[in-house]
From TrEMBL:
Family, per entry: Belongs to the aromatic prenyltransferase family.
Keyword terms of this UniProt record: Prenyltransferase, Transferase
Any single Pfam family the record assigns to this protein: PTase_Orf2
Name of this protein: Aromatic prenyltransferase Orf2
Species of origin: Acetivibrio clariflavus (strain DSM 19732 / NBRC 101661 / EBR45)
One GO molecular-function entry: prenyltransferase activity
Length: 380
């Protein structure tokens, strides 16, 4: 670490201490953490860095899964992480209701508040990504879903759902999938999704990007749909042989597996056309093919009732409202212009979903003012 040239003083002892805790941290990330340490010192009204400034910066800004890589932190030093300013869940609840009105769907406010309260630590955490998702489906089939993706707190979202009556076991293999995945693969965080009318719906299990799970290992999970075996060879042909996330849908009894561009590489429109066709789906318009070719990640939906893939999805990030493909459907403009978002950053994610029942667009507003969108771009 180089000598600090700023109003915050780093003694040689503190520089060496910081280096001892972060021996393998990339230089770009190291500079970011130095900024966090300086902010801690300024918050104390101090001009010199202390050990506690360093430790607090590391623990507050390092996802739970990676904290095991921070070495040499004295066990007798206690860091208060509760001082982070929490999000106002009453405001979030009101904004969910506003978003539902924009999407022209109903909203069960009592149900929304119950789920926000069950996952209060996650939804209120200022570093946890939160988004609202809707679709271009006809109004009578449209929904508004609220979700978080959390790598900052240790929790068991499935147990919390069961214990609080949000989810009831049905005797279906989907009941076992969460713990089968958790016990076999490294998991760095979880996401939860709920519908504003239908309640608890999904859990995402996020696998560290540098530790992707080979499809061959996923097919060995006893509760995973057998239909995956029918596609391993074909998906591998397109370098889609490693996954970085699993989604479990408890309402529709289905599961998603996620592939990222980092591993499968750039997709040409010809490659996308071939992939869609070989997977047994009608090839959509050139306009949609072009969107799919620029996807950040791709995912397939499997069920336990069919030997075929149920849906193909190509996911993109819009760094501001102008990048939302409003020309594809008039509803996209209405929602992206008016969706409530915390802060000034209006970022979105959108997905081209291909299904035998018809194609549509999923549009997700990043309620956390860029946390979700930025994390996707930085990670995948």
């Amino acid at each position: 670490m180089s000598e600090q040239v700023c109003e915050i003083l780093w003694s040689k002892k503190m520089q060496e201490y910081f280096n001892s805790l972060t021996p393998n941290m990339p230089e770009g990330l190291r500079d970011r953490y130095i900024g966090y340490v300086n902010e801690n010192a300024r918050a104390r009204g101090a001009s010199e860095v202390t050990e506690l400034d360093i430790i607090t910066a590391l623990l507050r800004n390092t996802p739970v899964f990676f904290r095991q890589n921070i070495s040499n932190i004295p066990k007798d030093i206690k860091v208060d992480l509760s001082s982070l300013t929490k999000r106002d869940l009453a405001l979030m609840s009101d904004d969910i209701e506003k978003a539902a009105k924009i999407a022209e769907v109903g909203c069960n406010k009592e149900l929304v508040n119950k789920i926000l309260n069950v996952y209060e630590e996650q939804f209120s955490h200022p570093q946890v990504a939160v988004s609202f998702r809707t679709t271009t489906k006809p109004v009578e089939k449209r929904s508004l879903d609220v979700r978080y993706v959390d790598v900052w707190t240790s929790h068991d979202p499935y147990a919390m759902a069961i214990e609080n009556g949000l989810l009831v076991k049905s005797g279906h293999p989907v009941d076992n999938l969460f713990y089968d995945i958790k016990s076999n693969f490294p998991i760095m965080g979880y996401g939860v999704d709920f519908g504003v009318l239908n309640g608890f719906a999904k859990i995402w299990m996020r696998i560290p990007t540098h530790l992707p799970v080979p499809l061959e290992k996923l097919q060995l999970i006893p509760s995973f749909p057998d239909s995956l075996k029918n596609y391993i060879s074909l998906l591998s042909k397109y370098s889609m042989d490693r996954i970085i996330m699993v989604g479990i849908d408890y309402i529709h009894k289905s599961t998603n597996i996620y592939f990222v561009k980092r591993y499968y590489g750039d997709l040409s429109t010809e490659t996308v056309t071939s992939l869609i066709s070989e997977l047994g789906f009608p090839v959509p318009s050139n306009e949609l093919i072009e969107e799919c070719a620029h996807a950040l990640f791709f995912y397939c939906t499997f069920t336990w009732d069919s030997p075929k893939i149920e849906r193909l999805s190509f996911h993109r990030v819009a760094h501001d409202q102008s990048q939302v493909p409003v020309h594809l459907h008039p509803f996209l403009e209405k929602y992206s212009l008016n969706a409530p978002i915390l802060g000034d950053k209006r970022k979105f994610m959108y997905t081209v979903a291909l299904s035998p029942k018809g194609n549509y667009i999923k549009l997700e507003s990043d309620y956390s003012s860029g946390i979700m969108a930025d994390a996707l771009v930085e990670t995948y």
